[in-house]
Amino acid sequence: MNIKKLAVFALIAGSLVACAHTSDRKVSMRTVTVPQLSAYNWQLAEATDRQGQPLPGFAAGSSMTLNFSGQRLNISGGCNNIISSYQLNDQDMQIHVPVSTMKACTPDIMAQDTAVMAFMNGQKLHVGLLNAENNQNEQPLLLIENQDGEHLLWRGIPAAAAQYGQPTVVFWEISPQTQTCQTAHGAAQCLKVREISYNDQGVKVKTGVWRNFAGKIDGWQFNPQENQVLRLNVYEVKPDDVTGTAADNQYVYKLDQIIERSVVTSPKRKYK
């Protein structure tokens, strides 16, 4: 999505009161509040420098997600989870030095972690919303600018807990191999998943059997070069009809954290 086009829209909307001030491109924004930050999962849509060129290290189609909880933020979807505390004052956000888990991944994914750490590392950032305040149906867009005039644009997805209630937490191992399976819409390539159980000390105590999964995991992208263990939040979406049976229930799967990941070195093959 092009920042210049968004800026034109924001000016037409008429309700935006401030501008990002360090870049060569003036982008009108309005103030965002802590409750608004916490109400959404923010998915990275664009990473650009002050001239509007793509920032090195940020891959196209990135699954990087930014979440806020109170005065803490968490970035996931790259290789490691990146956590920091922050303070919001009008359109200024002071980021404390972030900390990261220490997992190793493929170079392109590691590069995203390095890039976002460098963008936010202990800086005072300029933040705001691009959407018109009176447009309740529009997906919110959060713009974060650092002191070098670089921009990260995030698209807000409503936090699942506000929609569905509290989730069930599960741990799934995801195979780098897929399998052809039959769905209601015909043949498809399904993920191979199996459930992992841990004790209170975080030690793996049980591994389930492999099964097909034809659904979607929000905030996560399949990588055939990696074997991964994910911590997922699973939300039950009950049918509107109170007479519906348990079979009518649907589930929403959202990535909470990548617990383990390892690079596959042997040639891939598909299950028959």
What name is given to the CATH topology of the largest domain? Lipocalin
Beta strand count:
18
* Alpha-beta classification: mainly beta
Distance between the termini: 40 Å
Q: Helicity, in percent?
A: 10-25%
Proportion of beta-strand residues: 35-45%
Task: Calculate the mean pLDDT score and round it.
Answer: 79
Radius of gyration, whole Å: 20 Å
How many helices? The count is: 4
Subunit organisation of the chains: single chain
Catalogue the unreliable spans.
1-23, 241-248
List keywords for this structure.
18 strands, 272 residues, 2 domains, 4 helices, mainly beta, eight-stranded antiparallel beta barrel, seven-stranded mixed β-sheet, Lipocalin
How would the blueprint of this fold be written?
Elements: H1 3-13, E1 18-19, E2 28-29, H2 34-38, E3 40-48, E4 65-69, E5 72-76, E6 82-89, E7 92-95, E8 99-100, H3 107-120, E9 124-129, E10 141-145, E11 151-158, H4 160-164, E12 168-183, E13 186-198, E14 204-207, E15 211-213, E16 217-218, E17 226-237, E18 250-263
Parallel strand pairs: 16-18
Antiparallel strand pairs: 1-2, 3-4, 3-11, 4-5, 5-6, 6-7, 6-8, 7-9, 9-10, 10-11, 12-13, 12-17, 13-14, 13-15, 17-18
